[in-house]
Design goal:
The structure holds 2 protein chains of 2 kinds.
Chain A (H helix, E strand, L loop, with lengths): L1 H12 L8 H22 L7 E4 L13 E3 L1 H21 L8 H19 L3 H10 L1 H11 L4 H28 L12 H6 L4 H18 L8 H8 L2 H26 L4 H24 L4 H20 L4 H32 L10 H4 L1 H14 L6 H16 L1 H8 L1 H17 L13 H19 L2 H21 L5
Antiparallel strand pairs in A: 1-2
Helix pairs in contact in A: 1-2, 1-4, 2-3, 3-4, 3-11, 3-14, 3-20, 4-5, 4-6, 4-11, 5-7, 6-7, 6-11, 7-9, 7-10, 9-11, 10-11, 10-13, 11-13, 11-14, 11-21, 12-13, 12-19, 13-14, 13-17, 13-19, 14-16, 14-17, 14-20, 14-21, 16-19, 16-20, 17-18, 17-20
Chain B lengths: L2 H22 L5 H25 L4 E11 L2 E9 L1 H24 L6 H20 L3 H19 L9 H33 L4 H10 L6 H18 L8 H4 L5 H10 L4 H8 L1 H4 L3 H22 L5 H21 L3 H28 L17 H15 L5 H16 L1 H26 L7 H6 L5 H16 L16 H8 L14 H28 L13 H6 L4 H47 L7 H22 L1
Antiparallel strand pairs in B: 1-2
Classes of the chains: A mainly alpha, B mainly alpha.
């Protein structure tokens, strides 16, 4: 329970801490919750066992049970959340923003909501936390974002809100029964899974979840809110959106969408894989000629997650391991790339690549670390990106070799737009702006990122051993609780 | 120490050297940085030699498990057998000499420590590539050398004039290699799906001993994918245009990566996978013709290049083509022999050209050189030896290694033999042309350059001398069976001894008379080119004219057959067009337009209905439901 309580306390305390101490306070909070999560992970022997965090053993009149807990799948997302939150706080440490009490409070608020999403074992509770995450990320972008943010944020809000309502309807449908299925006893995950759905209701329910998740991931063609929102949010907002918020949707697909309505998986599988593939290629091609460096990486993110989404619906343990490695890699890379973009923007005031250039000469340390993250982004061996994409492309390839070939082109396109962005901004003779090299906190963020990226790239078994038993058990449960329609 | 412990050490030295120089290099004195890197590479070489003399059977060294899944087990492990160790000796041996050369060549460069860091890391990645015991490890090294190559081609990225161009050349190399890598990756998936493992030894056993084979189409698919990977790294048609551009990197890099080691990775891959290729005759055939075409095209382009490094680059592409011809005929050991001698003389030629460029204050255009014979005599002598070796001058290393491949071609198909000889003739012509233009005639550079011309320091001349000696005597490694039956083909016998699936295939022309005839033809080609080039460029002192004055085939050759322009037109432009148009029309107008229209629709309908509705919220939900219905309606209809 301390997983949730600690960041909640920090979020509340942030409102009363004096401005001078705020950034140290924020950092302390980030470190504390990261350490707590890691201690949980160390004590959690990878046996797929379920650890309960909170269970009042009581069902409210409309079925809410308040059940919270974690297995390997949830715990790794919690650890990811806390580590990334720490990195976000650390990235902002030298900025004005770090002394702002509302900002610090909102980051911790976001952390609470995310942990809630990942540890909810009750459908309605999951939905509530899911919706709560919108508030801090929206407010961070609204209060601290770029001048043109209003329109982008309205689009973002409407889009995700509508998506979420679809998920709520789907949950209601299982609970109360449509198309003739029996109502579930409560919103607890095991009760929801126990419901035998008719083909018709499974289709509705799967579709409702899918719409919510497809918007959040975002899956082509539901992605148009993403580049505008990313580019108009401040660095912390972009990082929260790309490194953590979209992982909620990927997690949701594994934990909720497929287990609750696996009857429909077969009919949705191919369309989702095709949408993922289109997204991979389409976003990559659009990224090639972008001039705004942040927008380039926003499209890069769309391109990368398409592959992950395709890997999830394969419902195969090997590919799912790729999903987890790649999710972690995507978070690390997103933090690194958007930090690099922010370093460039805050030092030069420019994001347009045609005006940038020559930074490597002025700031060689920054050039090196940005380079490392860029390499992880294009899946070079020895980085976690390679392991993730290797497993995922292999999974898709064994499902259908033509789609595998098309989706594999991400290896080529990724190199095209990432190296282009890197070279246009870093290479060439020095331009007439002064570019101080990394501060210690920026350096530390990059250093931690590199350590994690390389560890996962060389020894991915670390993550695999942690998640695999839980995934295997989850898949067994899906198969045993439902009579799958072949 | 046992072999089990020694082999990881070979890998460890350059890695440690790279890490130390990478972290502390900027603060250390230059001499120490260079010596450290050179020492790391040399220690690797010494260790490899120790293993080489004690290795009797293939040794597999398991390091750790990387991925352990239901139907996918990949481990980080090494395989030391005669093939991998032979490659290790070439890489670390030539690598050490080039490290030594770079200590002098890069002396005044501000990125000195960075350069040696990359060089050491390159050696490390290359060693992983050849020493890995499975295709997964090979892929790690394969992409690793690509990355090092990328950084080294774009090494002078902050140069005022050429910085961006260097970067573009580096990117081109990386992307073209990535296309090949994707092919290789698919090849790995195919092998996994067919055989369930990526370990060389297990695969070789399955295919050669247990005779477990896929369908012919499967074997074709596997080998074609591997070959596509090889065309990327070893610069074959259609993915060869990156290699000449890669000359933007410092010259020692061109010598090490783009001539002696990395570009032969494709050859190594095919030789390593020989057991697959033996069961895919169609791929062998394709490989043969691609190699033949590449060899011819590159030699043709090299005829009218005037940048001394570009000539050597196209020559490398051409020689690699020759190697694929050998592989296509199944002459694996002959290919490795030529890889070895080519590493000697091409590294020598590149370092020699580096010495020339160094002496000429960074001038690369041979039209502005001339008469360097007397000014830098040692460079001249070693360059001459390299030129003679590559053109197949009798009794030098290239003579024997080329002859072996040509002999195979003759017994395979006389037409192929003829085309190959024509390409060899072209090679001799453009090499001698370059030699005479650079070293004969009168000096054509500026007065300042003339004043400045000098021989490099000992660290630059010593590698030249060693490589020259190797280029002369390298042929002894694998003498033809013409006079000494028993002692001949030492290298081939050595390689087949304990390498999975590898067998020495003797050309069918083992008859002494025919061998002698082929040798005489080869000698005549080489000497004929020598005499003609001497008369045209040496004695008459003709200087190649400016590109604008060329016409006919010369213009086409000088413009590299317009292949870059064709690729631009076919692939680059359409993709960029798609990117711009896609963003403008699909993304902004269509997809975003739908959302905006949707929002406006809500607004407008809100205006409409607010007279009789209490608020917009209900309407919102109604629209939302409509959206969901739209999304799912297809499935409803289906069910």
């Amino acid at each position: 329970m301390e997983l949730l309580i600690i960041p909640s306390l920090f979020a509340l305390a942030a409102l009363v801490i004096p401005r001078n101490f705020m950034r140290y306070f924020g950092l302390a909070g980030g470190v504390t919750s990261a350490v707590v999560a890691i201690v949980h992970a160390v004590y959690y022997a990878p046996t797929a066992k379920y650890v309960s965090l909170f269970d009042p053993n009581w069902t409210s009149t409309f079925g809410l049970t308040y059940k919270m807990g974690y297995d390997g799948i949830s715990l790794i997302m919690v650890v990811l959340t806390n580590v990334i939150t720490l990195l976000i706080l650390l990235s902002n440490f030298n900025k004005e923003l770090a002394s702002n009490k509302m900002f610090t409070a909102m980051v911790f608020f976001m952390q609470v909501a995310l942990i809630g999403v990942f540890t909810s074992m009750d459908g309605l509770l999951f939905y509530i936390f899911w919706e709560i995450t919108l508030i801090p990320v929206f407010l961070i972008a609204l209060w601290f974002g770029a001048p043109g943010r209003k329109q982008a944020l309205i689009k973002f809000f409407i889009y995700t809100f509508v998506g979420s309502l679809a998920m709520l309807l789907a949950l209601m449908a299982i609970k109360t029964g449509i198309c003739g299925n029996l109502p579930a006893a409560s919103f607890a995950v095991e009760d929801l899974m126990a419901v035998q759905l008719s083909a018709c209701s499974a289709c509705w329910i799967f579709g409702g979840f899918l719409f919510a998740f497809a918007v959040k991931i975002p899956l082509f063609p539901f992605h148009t809110w993403q580049p505008d929102t990313y580019t108009n949010s401040p660095m912390a907002g972009t990082m929260l959106l790309s490194a953590l918020m979209l992982k909620m949707a990927l997690y949701g697909m594994i934990r909720w969408m497929i287990p609750l309505a696996p009857e429909s998986l077969e009919s949705y599988k191919l369309p989702i894989i095709i949408l993922g593939t289109i997204g991979v290629v389409y976003a990559a091609i659009l990224a090639i000629k972008q001039n705004d460096i942040k927008r380039t990486f926003a499209f890069a993110s769309i391109s990368h997650v398409g592959l992950i989404a395709a890997g999830i619906v394969l419902l195969n343990v090997d590919a799912t391991m790729g999903v987890f490695v790649q999710m972690i890699n995507h978070s690390l890379v997103a933090v690194g790339l958007f930090l690099a973009v922010d370093i460039i923007e805050s030092r030069t005031g420019i994001r347009s690549m045609s005006e940038l250039g020559g930074i490597a000469k002025q700031a060689p340390k920054f050039a090196f670390w940005f380079g490392v993250v860029a390499l992880a982004s294009i899946s070079v061996p020895l980085t976690s990106g390679f392991i993730g994409e290797f497993l995922l492309i292999r999974g898709v390839y064994s499902y259908n070799w033509i789609i595998g070939l098309v989706i594999g082109s991400t290896l080529v396109y990724g190199a095209v737009y990432t190296l282009r962005a890197y070279q246009l901004s870093m290479y060439g003779p020095s331009k007439n702006f002064n570019f101080p090299d990394l501060t210690w906190n920026e350096w530390l963020v990059f250093f931690i990122l590199m350590v994690l990226i390389v560890i996962l790239g060389v020894y991915p078994q670390l993550v695999i051993d942690f998640v695999q038993p839980s995934v295997t058990r989850l898949f067994e449960n899906i198969h045993s609780s439902k009579i799958l329609v072949q | 120490m046992s072999i089990q412990q020694l082999v990881p050490l070979i890998l460890l030295f350059p890695l440690i050297g790279g890490i130390i120089n990478g972290i502390f290099g900027k603060k250390l004195p230059k001499a120490l940085v260079g010596s450290l890197a050179t020492l790391a590479s040399t220690l690797s070489f010494a260790t490899a030699l120790m293993v080489f003399f004690h290795l009797n059977e293939p040794v597999k060294i398991h390091l750790f498990r990387m991925i352990d899944l239901e139907d996918l087990r990949l481990s980080a492990s090494l395989l030391a057998d005669n093939l991998s160790l032979w490659m290790v000796l070439i890489i670390t041996g030539i690598g050490s000499l080039i490290h030594l050369f770079s200590m002098g060549y890069m002396k005044h460069d501000e990125g000195y420590s960075k350069f040696f860091t990359y060089l050491n890391l390159f050696i490390f990645a290359m060693l992983i590539l050849v020493l890995g015991s499975n295709y997964f490890m090979l892929f790690f090294g394969w992409e690793g050398v690509g990355i090092c190559s990328y950084f080294l081609i774009g090494f002078h990225y902050s140069d005022a004039e050429k910085g961006m161009l260097n970067g573009i050349a580096a990117r081109k190399a990386f992307i073209m290699n990535r296309i090949g890598d994707l092919g290789l990756l698919i090849g790995l998936f195919l092998i996994l799906s067919q055989f369930g493992t990526l370990e060389y030894q297990e695969l070789a056993n399955m295919v050669t001993v247990d005779k477990i084979l896929g369908t012919p189409w499967m074997m074709f698919g596997i080998t074609m994918c591997l070959f596509i990977g090889a065309t990327g790294k070893s610069a074959q048609i259609p993915l060869f245009t990156w290699l000449p551009d890669a000359m933007a990197g410092p010259t020692p890099v061109s010598a090490l990566i783009h001539a002696a080691t990395m570009v032969t990775a494709g050859i190594f891959l095919v030789v390593r996978s020989n057991f697959f290729f033996e069961h895919a005759p169609m791929t062998q055939e394709i490989m043969l013709y691609i190699g033949l075409a590449t060899s011819l095209v590159a030699a043709f382009i090299a005829m009218r290049q005037n940048d001394i490094k570009k000539v050597l680059a196209y020559s490398t592409v051409s020689q690699l083509g020759l190697l694929f011809v050998a592989l296509g005929m199944g002459a694996y050991t002959a290919a490795i022999f030529h890889v070895t001698t080519h590493a000697f003389f091409k590294a020598l030629l590149f370092l020699g050209s580096g010495s020339v460029i160094h002496a000429m204050s960074d001038e690369q255009d041979m039209r502005k050189m001339g008469g360097l014979r007397k000014k830098i005599p040692l460079t001249h002598l070693t360059f001459l030896i390299g030129t003679l070796a590559i053109t197949g001058f009798p009794l030098l290393s290239g003579f024997f290694s080329k002859d072996e491949i040509v002999g195979h071609a003759f017994s395979h198909n006389v037409v192929i033999y003829g085309i190959l000889m024509f390409s060899i003739l072209l090679t001799a012509i453009y090499m001698f042309r370059m030699y005479f233009v650079v070293f004969f005639g009168s000096f054509r550079g500026t007065h300042e350059q003339e004043h400045h011309v000098h021989e490099g320091p000992a660290s630059m001349t010593l590698p030249l001398v060693i490589l020259a000696i190797l280029s002369i005597f390298g042929g002894l490694l694998n003498l033809p069976g013409i006079w000494l039956k028993g002692q001949a083909h030492w290298l081939s016998h050595h390689l087949e001894h304990n390498t999975g699936g590898l067998n020495l295939i003797e050309a069918e022309h083992a008859d002494n008379g025919i061998t002698l005839m082929l040798m005489i033809i080869a000698v005549a080609v080489c000497l004929g080119a020598l005499v003609v080039c001497y008369l045209v460029y040496g004695k008459k002192q003709n200087v190649p004219v400016a590109d604008a004055e060329l016409s006919g085939w010369q213009k086409i050759s000088a413009n590299k057959l317009y292949i870059d322009e064709i690729y631009n037109f076919l692939f680059v432009r359409p993709t960029e067009w798609l990117s711009v148009v896609g963003h403008k029309f699909i993304e902004i107008m269509f997809l975003n337009g739908i959302i905006l229209g949707f929002a406006k629709g809500i607004g407008a309908s809100g205006e409409l209905v607010k007279k009789w509705q209490t608020g917009r919220v209900n309407w919102y939900i109604l629209w939302m439901v409509g959206g969901i219905v739209g999304l799912i309606v297809y499935y409803l209809v289906k069910i």
